[in-house]
């Protein structure tokens, strides 16, 4: 049973946050993140975490995202199971889950600036590889999927952003956009739920994180619905172009040298 004093404190905290410009900035970012995730199957964290980390701090930004994503995008992602290729998703998801505790430990103990610079370098390298036009012309193997999952789990647990690893892996294939999107949606549904469990036991879901997540949840859900409608009218070419643009945005926004323009 929920304590009435806790609910009163929660309502007071929400009311206070709604009077702050920072909250409305976060709300705008949440909406854009939702549209992005609904359209492409990824990108919510790519947009939300780099921008809000400058005003909330990396640990809080990551925790807030995964909490509101759990109750909005995660159930939506599981609905794509029939359209996904489970033989490709399962090895990646299992490998990612095994690395999440390691990534969460890094998030709690490492210097946030070092984490952000490392991620920017990693994303840039993967983007350059994709833009060369290189494609893997075979079927993704369980071993390759597992290796990609290990990298995604570590990056996701440590920075909240695992999309570049996953997207670089699946966009390098010749699969249709609908299949790629379904695989991504299912993988992130599994990975997000697992990340929330790990973060919970690491004490990352503090009271103020819950408050921000409650404010963000309905805004993000609306963005998801709009993004999904946009996807229905897109082609494979448009899908890949949007994916590349999102990766570029993630690189630029994650650079710590831009913090002074966001704060």
Binned strand content? under 5%
Mean pLDDT: 78
Count of distinct structural domains: 1
Which regions are unreliable across 5 or more consecutive residues at pLDDT < 50? none
Structure description:
The protein is mainly α and 263 residues long. The protein has one domain (4-262). The chain contains 13 helices and no strands. The protein has helices at 4-17, 21-40, 44-56, 58-70, 73-78, 86-109, 112-131, 142-159, 163-171, 177-201, 207-231, 236-253, 259-262. Helix 1 (4-17) crosses helix 11. The protein is globular. It starts with a helix and ends with a helix. The model has no long low-confidence stretch (mean pLDDT 78).
What's the helix and strand layout?
Elements: H1 4-17, H2 21-40, H3 44-56, H4 58-70, H5 73-78, H6 86-109, H7 112-131, H8 142-159, H9 163-171, H10 177-201, H11 207-231, H12 236-253, H13 259-262
Helix pairs in contact: 1-11, 2-3, 2-11, 3-4, 3-12, 4-10, 4-11, 6-8, 6-10, 7-9, 7-12, 8-9
Task: Report a brief summary of the structure.
With 263 residues, this protein is mainly alpha-helical. It has 13 helices and no strands. The chain has one domain (4-262).
List keywords for this structure.
13 helices, mainly alpha, 263 residues
């Amino acid at each position: 049973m929920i304590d009435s004093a806790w609910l009163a404190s929660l309502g007071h905290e929400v009311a206070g946050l709604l009077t702050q410009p920072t909250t409305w900035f976060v709300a705008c970012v949440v909406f854009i993140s939702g549209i992005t995730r609904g359209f492409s199957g990824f990108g919510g964290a790519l947009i939300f975490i780099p921008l809000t980390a400058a005003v909330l701090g990396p640990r809080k930004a990551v925790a807030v995202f995964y909490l509101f994503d759990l109750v909005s995008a995660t159930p939506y992602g599981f609905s794509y199971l029939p359209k996904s290729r489970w033989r490709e998703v399962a090895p990646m998801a299992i490998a990612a889950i095994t690395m999440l505790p390691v990534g969460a430990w890094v998030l709690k103990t490492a210097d946030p600036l070092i984490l952000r610079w490392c991620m920017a370098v990693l994303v840039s390298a993967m983007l350059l590889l994709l833009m060369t036009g290189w494609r893997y012309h075979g079927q993704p193997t369980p071993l390759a999927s597992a290796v990609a999952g290990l990298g995604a789990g570590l990056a996701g647990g440590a920075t909240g952003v695992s999309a570049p690893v996953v997207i670089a892996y699946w966009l390098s294939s010749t699969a249709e956009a609908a299949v790629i999107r379904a695989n991504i949606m299912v993988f992130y549904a599994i990975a997000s739920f697992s990340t929330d469990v790990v973060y919970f036991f690491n004490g990352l879901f503090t009271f103020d994180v819950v408050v921000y997540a409650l404010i963000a949840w309905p805004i993000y859900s609306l963005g998801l619905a709009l993004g999904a409608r946009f996807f229905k009218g897109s082609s494979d070419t448009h899908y890949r172009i949007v994916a590349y643009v999102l990766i570029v945005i993630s690189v630029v926004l994650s650079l710590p040298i831009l913090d002074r323009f966001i704060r």
